[in-house]
Amino acid sequence: MAFEAAGSAPAGDGSRNPSSAIRQLREKAYARIEALDIAPDLGSDIGSRRWFRGLGTFVGLSVVALAFWPDFAPLEAASPLPDDAEVRGEYRSHMITPLGLGADTGRRMGPTALVRPLAEAPERPQMQMLATLGRGDSLDRTLRRAGVSSEEADQVASLIGRAVSLEDIEPGTQIDITLGRRPAPGESRPLDQLNLRARFDLELKVARLDEDGPLALTRRLIRVDETPLRIRGTVGDSLYRSARAAGAPASAIQAYLKAVGQEVNLQRDVRSTDQFDMIISHRRAATGERQAGQLLFAGLERGSRNGVQLMRWGKDGEFYSADGEGEEKGGLMAPVPGPMSSRYGMRRHPILGYRRMHAGVDFRARHGTPIVAVTDGRVTGAGRMGGCGNAVRLRHSNGIDTRYCHMSRVSVRRGQSVKRGQVIGYVGSTGLSTGPHLHYEMYRGGKHVNPASVSFVTRRQLSGEDLTKFRDTLQNLKKVEEGAALADLSPTAEEAASEEPAREIDKLDQPRKIG
């Protein structure tokens, strides 16, 4: 009760607690400051009185900040070096250079009378180096540049030439060379050992069995697995970038785009949800090296639309579709698969009996053979056309028109757009014709030209035993599991038994890639 009497006034005397009064004044001040709104958002209500008030606050604060900007004045630093030769010499004696030359304090910088020059500099007992076979270079010249004597370089080239043709050693092959001690001053160092990867599956070693013995060649065959590498993925925003992200080599992707691009329009017909599928020849050695080769299979899964399946086949390395149809070569596509039976130029008409201009070429084909458009175009005429009988006329780009005559049936209509290879009719013998064939004409700028002057596409078709082998190979190739070639080869019992224990210092040497 005594504490209450000393610390607080009676309720009825009207006096207040000083701390409470200060708190109330502070709250009123904060309320007035908030009501002033001196820093409104300058991004809203631009041009209003409230906005100009905020601009004034910004300018005022900027002026205050600039008013307190510090002055630029020189700073005190160490006094300059005295202009005294003795003092400068003292400073120079404590520099890094004399210490690096062997002085302990920097004062004794020159040799004393106890120092005697060597009669000859000692040489390393061995020299190890790595030489690279250049493009257009020979093995013996590479060895001579590395310091091997001409006699030993020729001897090494002769030994290696017995195991593998020197021309088959690819440029960029690295050669480990170890040279021994010189037998006498000024002479070449003898070759102690030489190692190179002559082929992906063959390592050669040239060394001396005895210290002073002749050079001998040792062959080491390396087990190689040739399981192809299969890479699949979703096209996404970019087919190229998605394939690269999946681990496909750039050269294989270029071959894939070229092959698939002949079947579908990569810009218009490929969707982001489509699945690409490529199989690449791949070799992995038991020593850990890997080598990717050429594209073997190019596939594109397009959902409910027709997909693409192409496989490299034959000694020419062309791509064939799953039904055994080869790549297109040349310019325009042939309208029918038959041979030419009559060429462009003046001739005696077989029905009219007099000489007249034959403004096209005739293709021999059976009745009902499909006739296709030689390239993309638009139908400008379809129906009966005088002596041409049932005919179709197409307008192509670059002022080119084509006409197909003597059809038994027309399968397009005027104004319709057609694609390259699309069937536009069937072979017949309507009009002035003596039998089933196709009369094909070409016009440039409204004037007829010789269609034979334009190269046609050739497309090979496998058949018989070749087609059976092709389909069997394709079926086996598609059984390859995705990423199966990326696993490391397990060592055989013989390899494990002959493997030497690895030393810790040898683990510093990383295996080199043989490209």
Automatic annotation (TrEMBL):
| Segments of skewed composition (Basic and acidic residues) | 500-515
Listed InterPro entries = Cell_wall_metabolism_enzyme, Csd3_N2, Dup_hybrid_motif, M23ase_b-sheet_dom
Coarse class of the protein's main subcellular location: other
**Superkingdom to which the source organism belongs:** Bacteria
Names of required cofactors: Zn(2+)
* Localization of this protein: Cell envelope
Ranges where the Csd3-like second N-terminal domain occurs = 230-335
Q: Which keywords does UniProt give here?
A: Hydrolase, Metal-binding, Metalloprotease, Protease, Signal, Zinc
| Segments forming domain M23ase beta-sheet core | 356-451
Checking Gene3D superfamilies in the record gives: 3.10.450.350, Glucose Permease (Domain IIA)
Q: Where is this region: Disordered?
A: 1-21, 485-515
What name does the UniProt record give this protein?
Answer: M23 family metallopeptidase
Protein species of origin:
Qipengyuania xiapuensis
